[in-house]
């Protein structure tokens, strides 16, 4: 039996996956393995910042108070139109994003211009004659080679968009760990009202989005009976026709009954057990192991394989009891995925107990209790309000919870400071109404 802290730190200290070059759309949420530098000047040509007129120097007219230009009859149809150079005293219509023609001094926005029989003049006083006005200069955002994001940074959605602007089609990143999900249980059904001997599945709906949020990529999901042969077929990675998953997550079958198949199959496969049972409730039968990802000789393995010392597939066994399974995912799965993906580990969240919460010692046991709770506003730290319906086989408390409180064996008194783990798959926005209710609308 591993202590809670040891189990967590074992998962969190797993080595990161080797870097790979992946298409831009797959790089979202990944950690950059090399600096992101602009591959060209951004913008790479000078463009107009307004719909209006690219102006050369105005025509010489006797009355200097009233400059005017010869308007070219054909202007830009859109930002893809390339315009011929401007002659002296000429103006040509442009749109926002148009490359400005050679000879442009500034761009006059359309609402400040007056066009009369091919003659363009000013409709009002305007700053738009100042040289360079309303022109986006070359390299204003970045010169070719400029550092946009450094190695080690996590690529946000906006980050992938910036990489596209900077000319990339693919990026070198620490990839998302590929996860094979195996849901066991002959009693598990996926729709309708369960009869006796049946339960509705809790994991197949929730785990994919939790895993994606945590930084993993779901490779495949399988539902199997409590059948050791089926489980073995999905866990046995040899011979690997395709790249082995980085992580296999199973649900159910972690205990020791006749129907529980995970441990015997892992023993058959000579898996290395890293954590077997964790001193926490719920979730104590959780299991963490690794098996060689590819046992073929190195020369027979696909070219893009990992170095010999990292050829492992990790196995995370989540207990079948619903709250126990999600608790084990939170405690072991999220730190493991962050470590494999080279993401930073979640910052610990501290809060104060708003109520007394009993610990495992009350029942004559050691270890921590994980209690679903909601967060409220406190003087200095958030307050945690424990929820009911929080036994290992239940979902009701977790459905309302923002966090799992890590309750030490001796329990918590009101005001005690305690670590909380964010419930995966929940946004940070609290759904509690602001104090005093929603703001009143002025009539
Ligand atoms: N004699 C003992 N019995 C049990 C022990 C023990 O130490 N000795 N530990 C208990 C604890 S604690 C837990 S947690 C569970 C672990 O169970 P398993 O991981 O082996 O899971 P199963 O037996 O397959 O299922 C347990 C429970 O969960 C339900 N389940 C399974 N999959 C799903 C699913 N996809 N959706 C909804 N519910 C699911 C299943 O029907 C069972 O009710 O073992 C205790 N027993
Ligand atoms: O560990 Mo079990 O998870 O208490 O139900």
From TrEMBL:
**Is Transferase found in the keyword set?**
yes
Pfam families on file: MoCF_biosynth (PF00994), MoeA_C (PF03454), MoeA_N (PF03453)
Pathway annotation from the record: Cofactor biosynthesis; molybdopterin biosynthesis
Residues forming the MoaB/Mog domain are 180-339
Q: What is its EC number?
A: 2.10.1.1
- Essential cofactor(s): Mg(2+)
Query: One GO molecular-function annotation for this sequence?
Result: molybdopterin molybdotransferase activity
Show the segment(s) annotated as Disordered.
Answer: 423-443
From the UniProt record, list the reaction(s) this protein catalyses.
Answer: adenylyl-molybdopterin + molybdate = Mo-molybdopterin + AMP + H(+)
Q: Which enzyme class, named as a word?
A: transferase
* Oxidoreductase is among the record's keywords: no
**Source superkingdom:** Bacteria
List the keywords (alphabetical): Magnesium, Metal-binding, Molybdenum, Molybdenum cofactor biosynthesis, Transferase
State the function annotated in the UniProt record.
Answer: Catalyzes the insertion of molybdate into adenylated molybdopterin with the concomitant release of AMP.
As for family, the record states: Belongs to the MoeA family.
Record-given protein name: Molybdopterin molybdenumtransferase
């Amino acid at each position: 039996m591993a202590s809670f802290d040891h189990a967590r730190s074992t998962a969190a200290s797993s080595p990161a996956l080797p870097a790979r070059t992946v298409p831009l759309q797959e790089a979202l949420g990944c950690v950059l393995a090399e600096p992101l530098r602009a591959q060209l000047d951004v913008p790479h040509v000078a463009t107009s910042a307004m719909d209006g007129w690219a102006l050369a120097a105005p025509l010489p007219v006797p009355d200097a108070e009233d400059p005017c230009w010869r308007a070219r009859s054909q202007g830009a149809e859109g930002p893809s139109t390339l315009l011929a150079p401007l002659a002296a005293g000429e103006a040509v219509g442009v749109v926002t994003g148009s490359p400005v023609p050679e000879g442009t001094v500034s761009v006059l926005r359309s609402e400040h211009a007056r066009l009369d029989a091919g003659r363009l003049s000013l409709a009002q006083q305007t700053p738009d004659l100042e040289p360079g006005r309303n022109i986006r200069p070359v390299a204003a955002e970045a010169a070719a080679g400029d550092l946009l994001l450094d190695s080690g940074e996590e690529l946000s959605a906006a980050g992938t968009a910036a990489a596209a602007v900077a000319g990339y089609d693919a990026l070198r990143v620490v990839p998302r760990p590929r996860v094979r999900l195996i849901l066991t249980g002959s009693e598990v059904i996926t729709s309708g009202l369960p009869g006796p001997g049946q339960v509705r599945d809790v994991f197949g709906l929730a785990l994919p989005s939790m895993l994606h949020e945590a930084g993993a990529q779901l490779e495949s999901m399988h539902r199997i009976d409590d059948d050791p042969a089926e489980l073995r077929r999905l866990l046995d990675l040899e011979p690997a026709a395709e790249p082995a998953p980085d992580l296999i997550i199973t649900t159910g079958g972690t205990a020791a009954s006749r129907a529980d198949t995970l441990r015997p199959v892992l023993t058959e496969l000579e898996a290395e057990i890293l954590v077997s049972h964790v001193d926490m409730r719920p979730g104590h039968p959780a299991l963490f192991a690794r098996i060689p990802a590819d046992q073929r000789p190195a020369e027979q393995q696909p070219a893009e394989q990992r170095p010999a010392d990292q050829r492992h597939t990790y196995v995370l066994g989540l207990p079948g009891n619903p709250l126990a399974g999600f608790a084990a995912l939170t405690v072991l799965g999220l730190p493991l995925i962050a470590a494999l993906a080279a993401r930073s580990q979640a910052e610990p969240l501290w809060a104060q107990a708003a109520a007394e919460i009993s610990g495992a010692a009350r029942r004559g046991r050691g270890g921590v209790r994980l209690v679903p709770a909601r967060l409220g506003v406190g003087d200095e730290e958030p307050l945690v309000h424990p929820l009911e319906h929080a036994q290992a086989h239940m979902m009701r408390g977790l459905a309302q919870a923002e966090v799992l409180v890590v309750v030490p064996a001796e329990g918590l008194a009101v005001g005690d400071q305690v670590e909380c783990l964010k419930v995966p798959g929940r946004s940070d926005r609290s759904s509690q109404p602001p104090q005093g209710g929603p703001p009143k609308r002025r009539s």
